[in-house]
Amino acid sequence: MRVLAAMSGGVDSAVAAARAVDAGHDVVGVHLALSARPGTLRTGSRGCCTIEDSRDARRAADLLGIPFYVWDFAERFTEEVVETFVGEYAAGRTPNPCVTCNEKIKFAALLEKAVALGFDAVCTGHYARLSVVDGVPELRRAADEGKDQSYVLASLTAEQLRHSLFPLGDSVKRDVRAEADRRGLAVANKPDSHDICFIPNGDTRGFLESRLGQRPGELVDAETGAVLGRHTGVHGFTVGQRKGLGIEAPAPDGRPRYVLGLEPVSGTVRVGPAERLGVREITADRPVWPGAPLDGPVECVVQVRAHGGTAPAVAELVGGEVRIAPREPLRGVAPGQVAVLYRPDAAGDLVLGSAKIRATDS
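RE: above sequence
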């Protein structure tokens, strides 16, 4: 196959490209330039997509003996990922920009261009298992549970998955680094990037305030209605948040308070005790099914965050929406997050589908 290897400049994508070469594919490397100011997107191991990263990717491609290009996707990244992120927070929702980037950039814009140029598949360094059985893609959790990225890939369509390769799905991270070292790849010990790539200093609240300005409102006790403090915008909070609330005085019972809900129109942030965080019903829309849609109530495992936030559940497709009932209360569930449904089996948890959380009920 003709394979386009997306090379971020890190160890995972470099080893994934190397394995694609070893498999006999005709491989071309490409680095995505996602920022008009690439020097601003990394601080130490935070962020990605800098000039340093593009140079690391080029050196890896040279060592592998494959052609290498840099494609400028900065404008589309800003529109599809950054502006969506800002807009979702302004609306009181909690987005996952990595899900959006995979969906809109790496497996929409990139794959679309790759197919137009005659490539059969895009190869990335994501940790997930992928196979195609009778023409139907099966996306599963990776062998390395700590690195599993099936959650952020679960919004991909069946057609996108048919044109994808994830060579690291059966590997654990330490083995990938060891392999990179054996191959002489200079990125073998390069730190992983983390946090949000376009907020390299990790100050999400400051970034959002720089885009949205201050939108003052009140912190309100959800049980008593008492005003506990003021804030500069609901975009500075997420459901389940405990620290940095700015509550002016301790609660009468002395227990910590958590964000329970956000009301962007009134500017109200409702807070309350931990036991009120538990969610027993989730309604999600815009479902994506790699295979067949749900047929009747289905026993599954639901995951609502990239790391953690899982529970056994019953899910059902009702009028185009997915209704999910966790078997036990699930904490930290917020509108805007993605709910991914898995079916546990011996071959590794299979992704049944995903949908965007619209509402929750305790």
